[in-house]
Design goal:
It is a single chain. About 60% of the residues lie in helices and about 20% in strands. A six-stranded mixed β-sheet has the order 3-4-5-6-7-8, with helices on both faces. A two-stranded antiparallel sheet has the order 1-2. The longest helix is centred in the N-terminal third of the chain and has 88 residues. It is elongated, with a radius of gyration of 37 Å. The N and C termini lie far apart (about 115 Å). Helix 1 packs antiparallel against helix 2. By secondary structure, the protein is of the alpha/beta class. Helix 4 links the parallel strand 6 and strand 7. It has four helices and eight strands.
């Protein structure tokens, strides 16, 4: 006679299954917690490395700017020294020739000297012009990069910045070194390697008038002016303040903005 075998799970087997299931859930929860902790550690480590890399990149960029500025300064000194040598040669030719007397040999030498003088003068004029252009380009590049980083003139924040913006309408044509815009204001920055008195007058009269004519779409905007230069004297700074013009000058690797007396035009 066969004995019937029960296929129904016993209480003990059910409890064993539940116990195993609970242990597996606890193990899985611990694994998830461990993975979350490791992920957070990796995130913090990546963030710290990224921060350190940004600091390193910023330091390298600052050092490169200092290096470029030093090289540009040294190049300008070299070009100025070469121009001085050219001018000295001219003086030697002129005054040396004057001491030789008025005879035939002098006439011949004089003709030769004048030709040499003219040749040297042409070369010096080109070199001096090149130095001036290089200085002006260096100043524009320096102040544009500094303003592009902040897009501020004093306490006024701007949304956009442009350089060397030019427009021609009818007989009126002008170019503006640096212009910044926001929803209610426009800032015109005139850049000079060395600021002069006439630059201020030109900025407050001709530049303002031409801008209003050439850009009628900004007729409702307040217009602020700034003069940026690598070199100022106190007379220029005081005159700019009287005229309500912001003064931007080099200070180490950054710029210093004197906008206490700035006004809208």
């Amino acid at each position: 006679m066969k004995t019937a075998v029960s296929t129904q799970p016993t209480f003990e087997s059910i409890m064993a299954i539940m116990d195993r299931t609970e242990r597996r859930q606890e193990a899985f929860a611990k694994l998830l917690e461990k993975n979350a902790i490791e992920a957070e550690k990796r995130r913090k480590k990546d963030a710290a490395e990224a921060k350190e890399q940004r600091k390193k990149d910023a330091a390298e960029a600052k050092e490169q700017r200092k290096k470029d500025a030093a090289e540009a300064k040294e190049q300008r000194k070299k070009e100025a020294a070469e121009a001085d040598v050219r001018i000295k040669k001219i003086e030697e030719l002129v005054f040396g020739t004057a001491k030789k007397g008025f005879d035939k040999e002098f006439d011949k030498q004089q003709t030769k000297s004048y030709a040499e003088i003219n040749k040297i003068l042409d070369k010096v004029a080109k070199e001096v012009g090149g130095i001036s252009n290089n200085n002006g380009h260096f100043a524009e590049e320096y102040f544009y990069n500094a303003l592009d980083a902040t897009r501020k003139l004093g306490n006024i924040k701007f949304d956009f910045i442009e350089r060397n913006r030019e427009r021609h309408i009818g007989k009126v044509q002008d170019e503006f070194d640096i212009i910044m815009f926001n929803g209610s204001s426009v800032a015109i920055i005139e850049v000079k390697y060395r600021a002069r008195q006439h630059s201020l007058q030109h900025l407050t009269t001709q530049k303002v008038k031409n801008f209003r004519t050439l850009y009628p779409e900004y007729a409702d905007r307040k217009l602020y002016l700034g003069i940026a230069s690598m070199s100022f004297n106190e007379e220029i700074i005081n005159e700019a303040r009287k005229l309500g013009i912001g003064v931007l000058k080099q200070k180490g690797d950054t710029i210093e903005c004197d906008t206490e007396y700035i006004k809208a035009y």
